[in-house]
Amino acid sequence: MTIGNNKLLVLSEYRKNRNLTQLELAEILGIDQSMISFLENGRRRLDPTKVKQVSLLTGIPKHELRPDLFENDTNIGKKNENHTKNS
C-alpha cells in the first residue's frame, strides 16, 4: 500500500507519473488544488463521498484512497482465500 503517515502517496505518484501539476489533477477530479496538496501532504483525507469518483477517474483502487473505509472488504477477500485453500 502506498499510504504513509496519512499522506496519500498513491495520488502523488499517479499525478507525477502522468506529469500533471496539482492544479491539472484538481481540474480533472473536480476539486480544489489546495485539497490535492492537503491530500498529498497528509493534512486531509479524501472525503468518503469522493472516493468512488476519484477511483473511477484515476483507476486507483478505492481501498488505496481510503483504506480505513475498506478494511472489512480486504478481510473478506482474505477469508475467502483461506476458505478455498482449506477446502
From TrEMBL:
Any Pfam family: HTH_3
Chain ranges passing through the membrane: none
Residue stretches making up the HTH cro/C1-type domain: 11-65
Annotated region (Disordered), positions in chain: 68-87
Record's compositionally biased regions (Basic and acidic residues): 76-87
Protein name: XRE family transcriptional regulator
